[in-house]
Amino acid sequence: MTVTTFSELELDESLLDALQDKGFTRPTAIQAAAIPPALDGRDVLGSAPTGTGKTAAYLLPAVQHLEGCPRKPSGRRRV
Question: I need a surface site. Which of 10, 57, 60, 78 has the fewest CB within 10 A?
Fold first, then answer.
């Protein structure tokens, strides 16, 4: 399957909204190739030229994972 939009990547709605707000409409080749296996929890090794979106390819799945993690209750205040 060829990914042509960020919504096809099954990212959280808040991430899709943030991408749209910043003007990103379509994933680059490295993002389309790397994000799906990363979202599945698989290891990804990607190589692409500077400026092609490798950082987002790595961070979008990481942020998606963090958004789904339950927050640890904070301890009692000490101040």
Answer: 78
